[in-house]
# Entry
Amino acid sequence: MIAVLAGGVGAARFLEGLVQVVPPEMIVAIVNTGDDMVFHGLHVSPDIDIVTYTLAGIVDPLQGWGIRDDTTHALSMLATLGAETWFKLGDRDLAVHIRRTELLRAGWTLSQVTDAFRRALNVGIRLLPMSDDPVVTEICTPVGWLHFQQYLVQRRARDEALGVRFTGIERARPAPGVLEALCTAEVIMIAPSNPVVSIGTILAVPGVRDAIIASPAPVVAVSPIIAGAPVKGPAAPLMRAVGLEVSARGVAACYRGLIDVLVIDQADADLADDIRASGVEVAVADTVMRGPVEKRRLAEATLVAARTAVRRRSY
Ligand code: FO1
# Structure
C-alpha cells in the first residue's frame, strides 16, 4: 500500500497519475484539513473536495477546485440576502457541504463523511482527513491573523505573510487509519503540495511526523516548486514567511530528516548536487502535470525514485 500526504490541486493531479500505475485500492491519501472553513453555516473541506472531485472526474479543470459546469444561483441569492460571497461555492458544490454538515451534526465524523462521499462518487482511493478534530491554518499579516482562506481568497494573498500557525493542532488526533497507513505503507509519498500550509499542517498533527520517521518504507516527496516558483497557489510568500528559500532546495530543507528522496523538475537539475550534499537524494523528472500522460510519467518516476531509495538503504 502507498500512503500519500496530500493538499489540494497539486496533490489531486498527482493522484490522478498514481491511479494510472497503481490499483486505487492500494492507495491511501491523507488529506490536509487546515483550510476547512464554515461558510453560510456549512462545513467546507476544500482539499478533501478537490481530491474527491478530481478523482471522480467532475472537478472544474480550469480552476482545479469546484465542480465542472456548476451554476451559482444559490450564491447569487445569498448575495441578494446580504451574505458575504467572496468564497465561490457552486450549486452542486453546495449540496456536498449541506450534506456534510447535516451528517456531522448527526454525529458522523469527518472521516466517515469523507469515506461515504468518495464511495458515492466512485473514487477508488481511500481518503483520510488528517484529523477529525478541528485545526485552522492561520497566516500572520500586518492586519492580524487571518484564516488561510481569508488570506488567500478574500484578500488575494496581498498582505505580507509574517508567520503561520495551526490553531488546535496540539489537541488534534490523527484520524482513524492515518497512523496505521503510515506504519504499514510500502512507500510514503509527499505530493507536490504547499510544504508549509498543506503538508506542514499534516506533519504537525501529533504523531504523524514520528510515524513517518519510524516507518521502514522509503519516503519520497515531489517538489511543488519549479524554477523558483510554485505551479499554483501562495507557496512563495508562505515559504519565505517561515524562512525557507523558494526553490527545490528550500523544499528539500523543509523535508530534511523526513524524506529519503526528492523528485525535482528537470528545470532545477542544476540544484541536484547541492540538495544531495545536504543529505537528501534527488531524482530529476518532468514534474509539470500538463495532461494524463505527464501525470502518469511523474507517478512512475516517483515510484522508481522510491524503489531506488529502498535499494540504497538495503546496501
Ligand atoms: N479558491 C479561490 O481562489 N477562490 C474561490 O472562490 C474558491 C472557492 C472554493 C470553493 C470550494 C473549494 O473546495 C475550493 C475553493 N477554492 C477557491 C480553492 C481553495 O481556496 C484553495 O485552493 C485550497 O484551500 C488550497 O488547497
Residues 7-8, 35, 44, 46-47, 49-50, 65-66, 87-89, 93, 149, 152-153 surround FO1 (CB under 6 Å). The chain has 13 helices and 14 strands.
